[in-house]
Amino acid sequence: METAKAKTITSTTPQCIIQHFCQSYTFEEVQEALWHSQHPHLLATFNELDPLHTDKLTVFYENIEILLSAVYQLPDLPPPPQEQEPTLTLYFAGDQRHV
Q1: Mean pLDDT of 8-21
Q2: I need a labelling partner for 20 at 20 to 30 A (CA). Which of 26, 49, 75, 83 fits?
Q3: Residue 93 burial (CB < 10 Å; 0-12/13-18/19+)?
Q4: Do the beta carbons of residue 11 and residue 17 sit within 8 Å?
């Protein structure tokens, strides 16, 4: 994975965090990094002949790939609707006022 300089995400909203992550790394870079981080663990479980653990790691890896694929498709979706500020309704002896 070749990037100029890794930057720590400083955003606070989920949308900003996802946007920053997707702008920092291509989907292919993420797949490659994920594979390089998981490959030694998968090989170790094959060498230990622990099929249950190997299956769990394989399913986990596949699910992370599916999740990341969905994350990279999010920019194609329309932005979430803006939430309106909640209003507080106060009642005064038959009078109704919105704050």
Answers
A1: 78
A2: 83
A3: exposed
A4: yes
